[in-house]
Design goal:
The chain is α/β, with parallel strands linked by helices and 278 residues long. It has one domain: NAD(P)-binding Rossmann-like Domain (Rossmann fold). The protein is 49% helix and 15% strand. A seven-stranded parallel beta sheet has the order 3-2-1-4-6-7-9, sandwiched between helices. A two-stranded parallel ribbon has the order 5-8.
Amino acid sequence: MSKVWFITGSSRGLGRNFVEAVLSRGDQVAATARTVGSLDDLVAAHGQLVFPLELDVTDQAAVFAGVRRAKEHFGRLDVIVNNAGYGLLGAVEELTEQQLRDQLETNLFGPLRVVQAALPHLREQGAGHIIQISSVGGLTALPLGGGYCASKWALEAMSESLALEVARFGIKVTVVEPGSYATEGAAGAVHAEANPLYSDLREDYAAYAQTLDAGDPAAAGRALLKLADADNPPLRVFFGTQGNPIVQQVYANRLKTWADWKDLAVEAHGHTPATPAA
C-alpha cells in the first residue's frame, strides 16, 4: 500500500533525496520548502504525486495551515519527516544569543510545530510514523558545534519523550542520526564571528571534515523507505557508517567517568541507601 508523506526541507540536501526516493516508488508527498519554486521540477516530473507547499517551519501559523492543507489534499498522512534544519559553526564564546535562538527556532521548535500540527490527524487515523532527522551531533559534541549540537540533543530528548507518549495511539517515532553526506547542506551553515583565540580549532575542524567518507544521499533515501516500511521501527538509527564507532567510544568514556566518580556520587547522596527487602 502506498504511503502519504509530509517532508520538510525538501528543496535540497537529504530532504530532496528523501522526496525523490518516495516518488520513485509511486508514493505521494507533501513537499515543503521556503521557496516553492525550487520544487517545480518535481511537480513537472511527477504531477499529482507531489503537493508543493511553501513553508517556513519558524512560522507556527503557516506550519499548522500547511499540515492541514496536506491532510485535506491527500485525505491522510502516514509519515511525517522533520528534515528542515541548518548548521551553526562557532565556539560557545563566539555565539550570539540571537544565533542560538534562531538555531533552536528551526532545528527544535520547527519539528515541535510540525509534530503538534500533525498529531491530531495521526491520532484520528490510529496510525502514523514521525521521523525526526537529527545528527550524530545529537548524541555527542565537537568543538565549534555547541549551538548546533544543543539543538539536536534537545530534539533527541523531546523525541524520546514523544515516542513514550504517543505509542498508545498507534503512532511510531524514529530519530535518524545521519553522518556526513555529499550534499550542499554545509553551504547553508551559519558561521559565528571568528575569535582568533579559536583559530586552531577551525583549522582542526576543516582538516577533520576533509577526512570524512561522505555517504551517498540517494542511499539515504532508499534507507528511509525501508525505515518507514518496518513493522517495528527503532527509536534511533544511524544513517551512514560514522555514527556507530563514534558513539560507542563516547558512551564507553561516559560510563567509565561515572564509574570512576561513583564514590563522590554516593557521598553526595548524604546517607547510605536502604537495602531492598529480599
